[in-house]
Amino acid sequence: MFMNEVIQLARTCYTRYYRYLINLII
After folding, report:
1. pTM greater than 0.70 (yes/no)
2. What is the maximum alpha-carbon separation in the chain?
3. For residue 13, how many C-alpha atoms fall within 13 Å in the half-sphere facing its CB?
4. Domain locations along the chain
5. Whether pLDDT at 23 is above 80
6. Runs of H (alpha helix) within 1-26
7. Residue 1 — pLDDT band, cuts 50, 70, 90?
8. How sure is the predictor about 22, in pLDDT bands with cuts at 50, 70 and 90?
9. What's the rounded mean pLDDT across residues 1-26?
10. What superkingdom heads the lineage (predicted)?
11. For the chain, how big is the Rg over CA atoms in Å?
């Protein structure tokens, strides 16, 4: 339902931000 979409969106944003941090460190 609505909660699933929010969780999916948050997970996508988190993954993108996490990759950005890793690229910044390396």
Report:
1. no
2. 38
3. 6
4. 1-26
5. yes
6. 2-25
7. low
8. very high
9. 92
10. Eukaryota
11. 12
